[in-house]
Sequence to fold (207 residues):
Amino acid sequence: MELSIYNIQGEDTGRKIALESSVFGIEPNDHAIYLTVKQYRANQRQGTHKTKERSEMSGSTRKLFRQKGTGGARRGDINSNILRGGARVFGPRPRSYSFKLNKKLRQLARRSALTYKAQDNQIMVLDQLSFEAPKTKSFVSMAKALNVDGQKTLYVVSQIEDTVALSARNIPGVSIVRAQDLNTYCVLDCRKIVFTEDALAQVNEMF
Fold:
């Protein structure tokens, strides 16, 4: 598959670039995508949740009433879990939710996600992405020229320039990522992907 290369004014440069079939034209594996997205979201969890259990509560340890003969449930002190304000039984404790996936499976998932985007014609290519000065207005004008304004868009570049990052940071739905940091989740979590020409060459080579 070949895509036309545009400039930041939204004009076709007349040149084309090929998408590697081994990256953008494979048989997608949905289960690999599912596992990789699950791992990514699990790794984002802090896992710092904690509730106090009975031994961690402060309160009197006096036995409230006798063990038998009252007709009610037996309980010990005021920290009992069956009393209001008491401890929680088997409450959440700090833990890590991360888990391991094989490198080849993660690579397969990334290629599968890129293939879906290519099949849906949701990939565009820019000759370069740079501005003389950081201006949000310049970035918005470029997005309008490319017909991607108002859509959740991922810009993939070889190196993130300060002028580009500062121009885009206040625009909702816009993300910028380096080609080497491209992952399955960020590919799926956007409507359009805009590659720079050198970033796409890196992706074709690395993936």
User: Anything to note?
Assistant: Residues 28 and 116 are 7 Å apart (CA to CA). The chain is about 35% helix and 15% strand. The helical segments are 21-24, 30-44, 103-119, 136-145, 162-168, 184-188, 197-206. The longest strand covers residues 12-18.
